[in-house]
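Issue: ligand-bound run for magnesium ion - logging full I/O for the record.

Environment: standard queue, default settings, no custom constraints.

Inputs:
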Amino acid sequence: MNDKIPSQPSCIDPFEPGMISLNEALKRINQRVRAVQACERLPIRDCLNRVNNEAVKSPRNVPPSPNSAMDGYAIAIASLVEGGIAELEEVGDAYAGRPFAGSCGPGQCVRIMTGALIPEGADAVIMQEQAEVAESGRVRIDSDHRAGENIRQTGEDVKQGEIVIEADLRLSPADLGVLASLGLAQLQVKRKPVVAFFSTGDELSAVGTPLQPGMIYDSNRYSLHGMLSRLPVDIVDLGVVRDNPEAMREALSEAAARADLIISTGGVSVGEADYIKPALADLGSTEFWKIAIKPGRPLTFGEIDNSIFMGLPGNPVAVMVTFNQFVAPAIDVLCGTSMRQPLLVPARALDRLRKRAGRTEFQRGVASLDENNCWQVGKTGKQGSGILTSMSRANCFIVLPDDNDGVEPGDEVSIQFLDWAI
Ligand code: AMP
Ligand code: MG
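Outputs:
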């Protein structure tokens, strides 16, 4: 007796008919998601991570006038003695915000501090460490200096009329500083997209309540909320939706009425896909994707009215991986900017990593610098898509491409740090 049941295609197979690549999924997301259109004018502090609507042209030069880059002495280079030492008369002080009122003539110098306006007549600043004060009080300077030395020139950072920040960029702390350096108090940015999300599953219990047999706590809503909180979006938490088509339809219509993007978790694997699928078929259009990644193979992507819908798998690690790889890039596009490219860094594997060719895997790793300041990476332990502690212990994904069929200690792998959106 050697009978066997022939296995249907499933998520344990490396290849499956109809599977699309990670890049193909990103391409489709990029094509379908539309940026929010409305804008608002905000104080620049509130513009962090927001997307500016128009290019910012500078109304002024930065710095607005020449000033000193050092503490020292402002002089006219012509006062120096070729091959010898000049002894200059100190005629005053210049401080940042308190300029020297007079001018610096031949044979004279002005004591000057960093950021102070260059006095009239001076064309160089000699660092105080390169000058000597004689007993007479005169300042001795040799001839090894040049005009323009230690002077920050007008407009050397930004020229009036120059575009300092292109349109449709996510604003960084440095950008806020640049805007302030131009004297701009407010900026027009695109409005925040609204993102609604819910968990699905009859087995889900709320934290803070006793756990009945067969139930588990709903962790996805917490990791999702955490990831969304790092992005420039308004968040609507729609709670847990039970596994029935009516509840699913209600949740989806409510979400579509309120949000630009709807995220659900669970109910997209083969056994349960039917709960989300018919609801979506009634309310909008949807595509069911099998993406060649692990974890996170099934993903539903579609539209309900003017909202984008992304149905993530239920397994907690798959939720975080698919959020990182697909939802965060979709949110970039929704915000009005281009998708960020994942930053992959080479690292030396410390462990043997099991993998079959066929899908891109996101194993969870702990990266550290070795004695030569090169990255090395070990795995966090068990890699099942339900092992959520593998995410909390990790500081990076070990990204193993489709064609990789296993890693030996010492092999080079690519890692992606989790500080982007996770
Ligand atoms: P599903 O895709 O709905 O079949 O879910 C796949 C696995 O993920 C099941 O073991 C679920 O119990 C688990 N799961 C689904 N939703 C959640 C959730 N919100 N929190 C924790 N585990 C979940
Ligand atoms: Mg479920």
